[in-house]
Write a structure and sequence with these properties.
The longest helix has 20 residues, at 142-161. The protein is built from ten helices and 19 strands. The chain is of the alpha/beta class. The radius of gyration is 20 Å and the shape is globular. The strands form five sheets. Strands 3, 6, 7, 10, 11, 18 and 19 form a seven-stranded mixed β-sheet that branches. The protein has two domains: 2-139 and 307-343, Quinone Oxidoreductase, Chain A, domain 1 (Alpha-Beta Complex); 152-288, Rossmann fold (3-Layer(aba) Sandwich), CATH 3.40.50. Helices cover 28% and strands 26% of the residues.
Length: 345
């Protein structure tokens, strides 16, 4: 089978590997169909690391994926060969303290696709534990199935943020996760959603998806504008989908007294000038997000039942052979690129 392997920053090699086999009674073998390129893939592609996760050996990237079951272990009862499936790319140990309380996203021994040392989904076939593989609704396309992973990040963020129907929300960053968070907050009852970015095409898409106001921070002050639109109070919850000092500072200044700041983005750099004093003085709850836990089935049902326009986020569709082109498209910051979808097979 064909696999796209990262050997060093900006060097992906297509090579032939042996077809994986079902070894565990509870595993399934999946023919990979669609994989979205995530910004975490780009971090590894450019820098060879994200924080403490460093690429030391050749690694297959990719984790936003869907496919078709081609084989399964004898203990797998909820899936059949030929089923179209969505893969939750986390494989926790199930025995550590965090797993036992349901927070398997911070499992001490977590394997996560495309994160060292676990190979990811830019391959033609892979095996995965069946309890983290979900049958796709008949009404959902394989492209939509691959988008459930980033939508799950957004839905988990909304749940962790404790959004209540009628809340006002601000989202900093209109990339894939910011736009997914827009859809998730609206689906969960937010009354007004303000979103910021520096790219007009992404802000236009945000308005098409239902944003109350889409603000280009290069053209107007987002804090003044959103404060004005909320009668001087600020949003109940601010989601930072960028994760750099500038946006974290904006979040602390923007959120209402007693509100919440949910940090989703995996930005680089330390905090040196952010007004940390605002956290105790405004009694702000700051909540960190690491991927998701216990939301994939809900995300699938919500996306299917409400017919959320997830595929509108796909701006570029490429074949597997064009993977490097897609990586470079995002790495070079092509303004109109939101979600690049790779058709593996």
């Amino acid at each position: 089978m064909k696999a796209a392997v990262l050997y060093k920053p900006r060097e992906i090699v297509f090579e032939e590997r042996e077809m994986p086999k079902v070894i565990s009674d509870t595993d399934v073998l999946i023919e990979v169909r669609n994989v979205g390129i995530c910004h975490s893939d780009i971090h590894y592609y450019i820098h060879g690391k994200i924080g403490d996760f460093v690429v030391k050996e050749p690694l297959v990237l990719g984790h936003e994926c869907s496919g078709v079951i081609v084989d399964k272990g004898p203990a797998v009862k909820h899936l059949e060969v030929g089923d179209r499936v969505i893969i939750e790319p986390a494989a926790p140990c199930r025995t550590c303290d965090y797993c036992k309380v349901g927070r398997y996203n911070i499992c001490e021994n977590l394997r996560f696709m495309g994160t060292p040392p676990t190979d990811g989904a830019f391959v033609e076939y892979l095996t995965w534990p069946s309890d983290f593989v979900y049958k796709m609704p008949d009404t959902m396309s394989l492209e939509e199935g691959a988008l459930i992973e980033p939508f799950s990040v957004a839905l988990y963020s909304v749940k962790r943020g404790g959004l209540s129907p009628g809340d006002r929300v601000a989202i900093l960053g209109a990339g894939t996760i910011g736009l997914m968070t827009l859809l998730a907050t609206l689906a969960c009852g937010a009354s007004e959603v303000f979103i910021t970015d520096i790219v007009d095409s992404k802000l236009k898409l945000a308005e098409e998806l239902g944003a109350t106001a889409a603000i280009n921070v290069y053209k107007e002050d987002p804090i003044k504008t959103i404060k004005y639109l909320t009668n001087g109070k600020g949003p109940d919850i601010v989601f930072d989908a960028v994760g750099i000092e500038r946006t974290f500072t904006q979040a602390l200044n923007l959120v209402k007294i007693g509100g919440k700041v949910v940090v989703i983005g995996l930005g680089f750099g330390d905090l040196t000038t952010s007004p940390i004093i605002n956290i105790p003085c405004k009694e702000i709850n700051v909540i960190g997000i690491l991927r998701y836990a216990n939301v994939f089935p809900q995300a699938i049902r919500l996306a299917a039942s409400k017919k959320l326009p997830l595929v509108k986020l796909i701006t570029n569709r490429l074949d597997f052979s064009e993977l490097v082109k897609g990586m470079e498209m995002i790495a070079k910051g092509e303004k109109d690129a939101v979600k690049v979808m790779i058709k593996v097979r």
